[in-house]
Design a protein that fits this description.
The structure is a homodimer. Chain A is mainly alpha-helical. Chain A has six helices and two strands, in the order αααββααα. Helices cover 48% and strands 6% of the residues of chain A. In chain A, α1 packs across α3 and α1 packs across α4. The structure holds a DNA duplex. Chains A, B: Pfam families: Rrf2.
DNA sequence: TATTAATTCTATCGATTTACTAGGAATTAA
DNA sequence: TTAATTCCTAGTAAATCGATAGAATTAATA
C-alpha cells in the first residue's frame, strides 16, 4: 500500500501538471485544490524538491512548479522516494538491496527468485504510470 | 514490502511442503528449520490454520501439516492474509475496498484508475507464484 | 528600509503498527 | 499421571506514520 505521503505527492504533482505553463503554485493553493493538510504538504513538497521533481521560488509570490516533464515522472519513482523499495523483500530489491538476516546460506533465500519475478513485473507496470497518464483521464 | 509475518509464513509453508506426506511438523522443528523465532511462529501457524492452509494435531506428538495443495497456495493469498490489500490504495482494492476520504467526488479519485491497472498486473503475477513453484528451484 | 507573504527548517507529538516475548491453559499420547 | 505439544491472551519496546508548531529565511513592493 502507498503511504499517505506518497498518495499526497502524486496528487500534488497532478495538481501542478494541470496548471498553466509558468504558473507558480503556493502550498496553500495545492493543499486546497488537492485536499491535503497544508503543513503535511509542506514536507512532501520539500521531499519532491530534494528529489528534483519540483523547484520552488522563495519569498512573496513564491511557490512550487514542476521541473520534470509530467511524461517522465513515474509511479515507480514516487514510490521509491516516499515508500522505498518496490520489491517485496530487501533481498529482491534493485535499489534497496539488503541480504536477508534469516537466510542461512547467503543468496539462497528460498523466496528471492520468485519475488524478483514479481518485482520485475510490478516495476514495469509502475513505470508505465506517469503523471501525464493520470492527468488525461 | 512483505511484513516479517508474511515472509515467515511463506518459509514455514515451504518447510511443510518439503516434508514427506503424512509427516507432522512440530513448531520448534519448523522454527529451527526455517530460522524463525519460535513464539512468533506459533502465532503465524495459528493464523495459517484459521486461513485453512494448515491444520494441526494437539497434544504430545502433535504439530502442523498442510491441508491445501502446495500448487494452490499463492503468494497473493498469503499477502492478503497477513499484509492485507494488494492494491496500492484502498479505493483500488478488490478485497479490501474503501472509498478515499480525501477525494472530493466519490469514484473520481484521480489515482484510482491507474492504480487498478497496477493491481491487476501485480495480482496476476502474485497468483502465479505458488508454494510449489518456490520449492522446486 | 520596513512590511508582508511566502518558503524552509527543525522539532515534537500522539497514535498505531510491528516484531517479538512471556506465561500459562488446554489437549493428547504414552 | 506426566511430558510434550498446541492454543490463547497479554504485554512491550521500538519504529513508523500522519500531522502540527513555531521560528528562521527569503523576496517583492510600498
Amino acid at each position: 500500500m502507498l503511504s499517505h505521503k506518497a498518495k499526497y505527492a502524486l496528487k500534488a504533482l497532478l495538481y501542478l501538471a494541470e496548471q498553466d505553463e509558468n504558473h507558480i503554485s503556493r502550498t496553500i493553493e495545492i493543499a486546497d485544490g488537492a485536499n491535503i493538510p497544508k503543513k503535511f504538504l509542506e514536507q512532501i513538497l520539500l521531499d519532491l524538491k530534494r528529489g528534483r521533481f519540483v523547484s520552488s521560488k522563495q519569498g512573496k509570490f513564491g511557490g512550487y512548479y514542476l521541473i520534470k516533464s509530467k511524461n517522465d515522472i513515474t509511479l515507480a519513482e514516487i514510490h521509491r522516494l516516499f515508500d522505498g523499495a518496490i520489491a517485496l523483500l530487501p533481498c529482491a530489491s534493485l535499489n534497496f538491496y539488503e541480504p536477508c538476516s534469516d537466510c542461512k546460506t547467503e543468496d539462497e533465500c528460498s523466496l528471492r527468485h520468485g519475488l524478483m519475478l514479481i518485482r520485475d513485473k510490478t516495476l514495469k507496470a509502475m513505470e508505465g504510470i506517469t503523471i501525464a497518464s493520470l492527468v488525461k483521464k
